[in-house]
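So, who can interpret the following?
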Amino acid sequence: MSAPKYSAGFEEQVVLGIVRGSGPMAGVAGSYGLVAQTVGNWVAGWRREHPDLGADAVTAEEHAEIKRLKAELREARMENEFLEEAAAFFARESG
């Protein structure tokens, strides 16, 4: 008897549930009607394929969004610093 095949999307959903800390492996596996060993194999494979993501599992889209937001925050901080310096300059000039 061969093992049932699951879609890649389904496997990723289960694995991310484990990696993001939705619960213990046996509990998450059971909630999907799966054997914990099967899910453990999926998680191990996912971690081998995504060593840079570790426990903070994020999709490529989420990683790109985080990178964009960090750049946006850095720019906003620089603009804020410039405006604070400009306000201090004009306060000194007018006072």
About this structure: Residues 14 and 32 are 8 Å apart (CA to CA). The chain has two domains: 1-57, 59-95.
